[in-house]
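pipeline/complex-builder :: batch 7 item 3
reading input block
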Amino acid sequence: MSSKVPIDQLAQHIGEQVELRGWLYNKRSSGKIAFLEVRDGSGTVQAVTVRGKVEPATWEVIETIGQESSLAVTGTVKADDRAPSGVELVVEAIEVFQAVEGYPISPKEHGVEFLMDRRHLWLRSAQQHAVLRVRSALQKICRDYFYERGYVLFDSPMLTPLSVEGTTTLFETDYFGRSAFLSQSGQLYQEAGAMAFGKVFCFGPTFRAEKSKTRRHLTEFWMLEPEIAYATIDDAMDVAEDFICTVIAQALVECRSELDVLERDLSALEAVQAPFPRLHYDDSVKLLQEAGEEFEWGDDFGGGHETLLSKHFGKPVFINRFPARIKPFYMEPDPERDDLVLGCDLIASDGYGEIIGGGQRIHDPVLLESKLEEHGLPREPYEWYLDLRRYGTVPHSGFGMGLERLVAWVTGRPHLRETIPFPRTIGRLEP
Ligand code: 4AD
Ligand code: MG
């Protein structure tokens, strides 16, 4: 009897008869010998069929089935040094679950919109498959990083009456006759968690009605947000730096075969080593101006500025101490300059943009009240948040990392739309 073995484990079954269950990815036939590329989700393998060595009915099936036909293949595993999997399968029998004709995504080039409209199928192609496996691995690596260092996973709600990152990107929804928003960031709730548990993190979807079309913005994206009691902005940068270095190093080991499929330049990722430069906002302005950019003190960075800064240093770079007027209400003012706040952004290397945003939070209750008012935010929904400053307030800091930006960086995808199974952007709600 043949045993069912996933393709990525075939190398441990050389000489044995096995059964694979999967889909036909590609096919070449000379009329005498047919090479079927079969995928099963864990990998792909070449299944070789020789006419006359299988039942005539089986040969006929092979001649007619098209791409993405679902099938079970029984055959003997043979070592093959030239194959990426190290093996091939010599076919003895094939059972077809569904013979498919006219699969819409052929190996020829398609436009991105065509592929995005068929995202539910496009996911099966080798490159998309590799990107999403990296995403899956990165989520685990990121979670484990915080679990292993004593953080408590503390989930923030998705429905909230609060705005965190400004009111212009809120998705509003009816909540039994009241107005609610989809969460822009779990941060404010993490602050409650930090006061209860010391070190917490959340990792979930967040929503922003981003009205501009850019390759770095989705309207639904996943954010990992640690929050730490008794921590300063410098502590937050220390954690972010060690976190990113650890995650990238681990991805280089664990995602090696996927990065090979994607032809990612590994040396770019190997160069991600601490320490990362920590650039004062004022100095970043000077640097941009010297590079000939039209950038005034007080401006926020655009994608081009971020790319320029990261290329200048050749490694990830922190920008810290931003003008208060371009940052949210909760940021602690710089004790040395009242026009600045203790915010920090981490710009990824090679032009993958801002990957982390964070900093130190206001801990003084009176100052926080005045900032809410200054930013035109209603007092009542933030009463509980003010309680955190009334009862045992301490300096605390944290940050948020965008998962899709991390996946784009690690996999070398220029556009975030390929880094999540079903991307949501201003122009796309389907599939
Ligand atoms: O810089 P942001 O807006 O920071 C916050 O939301 C803080 N409340 C986080 C915190 O301190 N707990 O967002 C954090 C990160 C960005 O650096 C970026 O990686 C990602 O989230 N991000 C987006 N990713 C995809 N699409 C978007 N529209 C994004 N907006 C932010
Ligand atoms: Mg930001």
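note: The CA atoms of residues 215 and 415 lie 5 Å apart.
queue -> next item
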